Structures are given as C-alpha cells and as structure tokens.
C-alpha cells in the first residue's frame, strides 16, 4: 500500500482489490478494480463512463455481509487514448450520507 497527498490535501491510499458498484441499491452490481481511495471517496476502473452527479452504491466484496456506501460521481476519464476495443475509464466518486 502506498500513500500520497492529492491536490485536495487528502491522503490517497493505493489498496489493491476489487469493489462492486450499482446505479441503485437494488440494481445489479458490477465488479470493478479499486485504483485508490481516501476517507471521502475513491477511484475505480469501469468499462463505461458516468456523468458527474450520477448516484452510485459502492460495496465491498470481501465480507460475508457487504458494507454499502452511497456515493456520487465527480469525474470520469478514459484510461487510454482509444476505448473502442478495450473500454476502460477511471471513475472518481465522493461519498454521501
């Protein structure tokens, strides 16, 4: 695990692992690679981009009773110049109550 400070002075932690996310609490969850996280949000890899303010539910995969956290998308960026053959986007979310 490596830790560094981002532009907003929050410690970001690179913790290898996967999460699951959904557009609604009762929707279908998709697996995603966790890229980094802070105490206020996280960044994960997705096969599709999301518009800012899109509400998501994030949950852990490694627990018998997964912990759910509500979040909203802050930004979404392509991870490579071409996403046609291998779509990959980094999605940044902030946790909400």
The best one-word shape is globular
Mean pLDDT: 82
Number of helices: 0
Provide the succession of SSEs: EEEEEEEE
Bin the strand percentage: over 45%
CA distance, first residue to last residue:
27 Å
The spatial strand order of the largest sheet comes to: 3-4-5-8-7-6
Roughly what percent helix? under 10%
Class inferred from helices and paired strands: mainly beta
How many extended strands? 8
What's the alpha carbon Rg, rounded to whole Å? 13 Å
The largest sheet is:
6 strands, antiparallel, barrel
Unreliable stretches: 1-7
Structure in a nutshell:
The protein is an all-beta fold.
Verbal overview:
- By secondary structure, the protein is mainly beta.
- 0% of the residues lie in helices and 53% in strands.
- It has a 6-stranded antiparallel barrel with strand order 3-4-5-8-7-6.
- It is globular and about 35 Å long.
- The chain starts with a strand and ends with a strand.
What's the layout of helices and strands?
Elements lengths: L1 E4 L5 E4 L3 E5 L7 E8 L3 E6 L8 E6 L7 E11 L10 E7 L2
Antiparallel strand pairs: 1-2, 3-4, 3-6, 4-5, 5-8, 6-7, 7-8
Keywords:
disordered N terminus, mainly beta, about 100 residues, six-stranded antiparallel barrel, two-stranded antiparallel ribbon
């Amino acid at each position: 695990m490596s830790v560094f400070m981002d532009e907003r002075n929050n410690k970001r932690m690179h913790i290898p692992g996967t999460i699951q996310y959904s557009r609604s609490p009762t929707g279908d969850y998709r697996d995603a690679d966790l890229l980094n996280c802070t105490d206020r949000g996280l960044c994960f890899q997705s096969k599709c981009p999301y518009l800012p303010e899109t509400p998501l539910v994030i949950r852990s995969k490694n627990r018998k009773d997964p912990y759910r956290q509500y979040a909203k998308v802050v930004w979404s960026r392509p991870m490579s110049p071409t996403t046609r053959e291998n779509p990959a986007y980094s999605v940044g979310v902030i946790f909400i109550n």
